[in-house]
Design goal:
about 40% helix; alpha+beta; about 150 residues; 5 helices
Length: about 150
């Protein structure tokens, strides 16, 4: 098994169970615990694996509204606006994009009143020229990750 192939299999195993022990990963991949540990450390050092975190179902915690906010921003203010969005705890995703808008942000809110309050705060910024907000009606897939291709 090549180094890259082992890394891909290790990543795929962790995608299936991020809490797997080094021993169980080694057994699944038919390599030693030391090999698993060394490869994991390398993947972490290279920034391939950025951390281990639970997947939270925000709906079950009362965040019933997911909003997708598109923003047109004055060019020089883009870094500042993106930083402000990143700092807002309820913005779970922020992208700089091409196309008609400059930024797309995804936020989770308890209700539409809370969403409106957050969006009005954005509109008060003179560097934001325009916004377009869509409320998600049904989440089909969210935070999905995909297995890496592995040579057999």
């Amino acid at each position: 098994m090549t180094y890259e192939n082992l890394d891909a299999k290790l990543v795929n195993s962790l995608l299936g169970n991020g809490r797997a022990s080094l021993r169980s990963l080694g057994e699944d991949l038919d390599v030693s615990v030391t090999t698993v540990s060394n490869h994991l450390r390398d993947l972490e050092d290279e920034g391939v694996i950025e951390g281990y975190t639970p997947r939270v179902n925000y709906d079950r915690l009362g965040y019933d509204v997911t909003a997708i906010v598109q923003l047109k921003v004055e060019g020089s203010a883009l870094p500042e606006i993106v930083d402000r969005l990143r700092e807002q705890k309820q913005m779970v995703t922020v992208y700089e994009v091409t196309g008609d808008y400059d930024v797309i942000a995804v936020g989770k809110f308890h209700d539409t009143d809370e969403m409106n309050e957050g969006i009005k705060g954005l509109l008060a910024d003179q560097d934001i020229r325009e916004t377009n907000t869509s409320v998600v009606l049904n989440t089909v897939v969210e935070n999905a990750q995909f297995d890496l291709d592995v040579e057999e």
